[in-house]
Amino acid sequence: MLQLDFLDDLRRMNMRQLFYQLLNFAMIVSSALMIWKGLMVVTGSESPIVVVLSMEPAFQRGDLLFLTNYEQEPIRAGEIVVFKVEGRDIPIVHRVMKVHEKEDGSVKFLTKGDNNNVDDRGLYANGQAWLNRKDVVGRARGYVPFIGIVTIIMNDYPKFKYAVLAGLGLFVLVHRE
Amino acid sequence: MSKKVAVSMEENPPKVNKWDGNALKNALDDAVKDVLLTQFSYVESHKLLDGRLIISSVAVGFSIFALVWDWLYPFPQSRTVMCVCVVSYFVMMGVLTWYTTCLERGIFCTALNKDAAGIDPDDVWNASSSLKRFDNKYHLRLTQRMGKSGKGKEAHTTLTVENFFDETGRLLYGAVAKEVLRLHSDVENKKN
């Protein structure tokens, strides 16, 4: 009954109103996208917010990390960096152990997980001994605990994620403002 | 779509969920609009809504462009373009807010009374409404701007929503029509 009432609302709309309904949905998605892109520009990182899967004891699973990646800030030992490794889809959050800088500004560094016994050379691409500036996604600047667990659950149960997204999308499309 | 329109609103008034304020307002708006366009020989003007459509389309265009550009030229390269797109998008959102609050101001129908001779500019009728959340008072305002003199007249009424829906939530078209016709003649009879 309720469902029919909803549809009746839509049926009374003309083409312009229906088009605006679509645009309204597009604007909600766009706002989220543009905030994300805006953060990218401000922080200089291609992924300014990441969810920690494991980096104990510094961060717990599900913590939300806020990253910046300014070129002019040098990388220092002790910092927590997020980096990509060739052949791995998910970036890694680990601490910088050793840094070598050259006069021309190029830098190479080695990382290690706080809870690991050995450094990360075993995790790097085959034959790679050091990380370079271009591997860095960002450096941790702040964190919010636990919130990211929602994302982790969503990704663990993709069907649940798509069901929630489809439900929300349908609601916005069908519901007249 | 066109088949549905064939059944007039008067014969088949909409049925709504009475506890949904939005649905009530939409149904009343649609009925007022229907009365204005069927009882008088007015022509609907879509200018106001078209303006909103254009603003929103441009805004969405910026975000689609940003998405495609960032995909073609991954981030550090696309920085400047991203910057421009993000700023433009939020400027457009600001323009949209300004447009709806300052220009549209709740106007849901613009009807033109075409000058019979086609020489003078048309008289413009605007209907605007508001219904506060959790409130049962539907405020309806009808304004007329004379094409010839450019002078405006208006009248305002407050309707109690429960008088315009039966217990099942079906709109009482006749009751709405009566109010609209009364308001319309109020405006027409007003002296400038």
TrEMBL record, chain A:
<comment type="similarity">
    <text>Belongs to the peptidase S26B family.</text>
</comment>
<keyword id="KW-0472">Membrane</keyword>
<keyword id="KW-1133">Transmembrane helix</keyword>
<feature type="transmembrane region" description="Helical">
    <location>
        <begin position="18"/>
        <end position="36"/>
    </location>
</feature>
<keyword id="KW-0378">Hydrolase</keyword>
<dbReference type="InterPro" id="IPR001733">
    <property type="entry name" value="Peptidase_S26B"/>
</dbReference>
<protein>
    <recommendedName>
        <fullName>Signal peptidase complex catalytic subunit SEC11</fullName>
        <ecNumber>3.4.21.89</ecNumber>
    </recommendedName>
</protein>
<dbReference type="InterPro" id="IPR015927">
    <property type="entry name" value="Peptidase_S24_S26A/B/C"/>
</dbReference>
<keyword id="KW-0812">Transmembrane</keyword>
<comment type="function">
    <text>Catalytic component of the signal peptidase complex (SPC) which catalyzes the cleavage of N-terminal signal sequences from nascent proteins as they are translocated into the lumen of the endoplasmic reticulum. Specifically cleaves N-terminal signal peptides that contain a hydrophobic alpha-helix (h-region) shorter than 18-20 amino acids.</text>
</comment>
<comment type="subunit">
    <text>Component of the signal peptidase complex.</text>
</comment>
<keyword id="KW-0256">Endoplasmic reticulum</keyword>
<dbReference type="InterPro" id="IPR036286">
    <property type="entry name" value="LexA/Signal_pep-like_sf"/>
</dbReference>
<keyword id="KW-0645">Protease</keyword>
<dbReference type="Pfam" id="PF00717">
    <property type="entry name" value="Peptidase_S24"/>
</dbReference>
<dbReference type="GO" id="GO:0006465">
    <property type="term" value="P:signal peptide processing"/>
</dbReference>
<dbReference type="GO" id="GO:0004252">
    <property type="term" value="F:serine-type endopeptidase activity"/>
</dbReference>
<dbReference type="InterPro" id="IPR019533">
    <property type="entry name" value="Peptidase_S26"/>
</dbReference>
<dbReference type="GO" id="GO:0009003">
    <property type="term" value="F:signal peptidase activity"/>
</dbReference>
<feature type="domain" description="Peptidase S24/S26A/S26B/S26C">
    <location>
        <begin position="54"/>
        <end position="121"/>
    </location>
</feature>
<keyword id="KW-0735">Signal-anchor</keyword>
<dbReference type="GO" id="GO:0005787">
    <property type="term" value="C:signal peptidase complex"/>
</dbReference>
From TrEMBL, chain B:
<keyword id="KW-0812">Transmembrane</keyword>
<comment type="similarity">
    <text>Belongs to the SPCS2 family.</text>
</comment>
<comment type="function">
    <text>Component of the signal peptidase complex (SPC) which catalyzes the cleavage of N-terminal signal sequences from nascent proteins as they are translocated into the lumen of the endoplasmic reticulum. Enhances the enzymatic activity of SPC and facilitates the interactions between different components of the translocation site.</text>
</comment>
<keyword id="KW-0256">Endoplasmic reticulum</keyword>
<feature type="transmembrane region" description="Helical">
    <location>
        <begin position="53"/>
        <end position="73"/>
    </location>
</feature>
<protein>
    <recommendedName>
        <fullName>Signal peptidase complex subunit 2</fullName>
    </recommendedName>
</protein>
<keyword id="KW-0472">Membrane</keyword>
<dbReference type="GO" id="GO:0006465">
    <property type="term" value="P:signal peptide processing"/>
</dbReference>
<dbReference type="GO" id="GO:0005787">
    <property type="term" value="C:signal peptidase complex"/>
</dbReference>
<dbReference type="InterPro" id="IPR009582">
    <property type="entry name" value="Spc2/SPCS2"/>
</dbReference>
<feature type="transmembrane region" description="Helical">
    <location>
        <begin position="80"/>
        <end position="99"/>
    </location>
</feature>
<keyword id="KW-1133">Transmembrane helix</keyword>
<dbReference type="GO" id="GO:0045047">
    <property type="term" value="P:protein targeting to ER"/>
</dbReference>
<dbReference type="Pfam" id="PF06703">
    <property type="entry name" value="SPC25"/>
</dbReference>
<dbReference type="GO" id="GO:0008233">
    <property type="term" value="F:peptidase activity"/>
</dbReference>
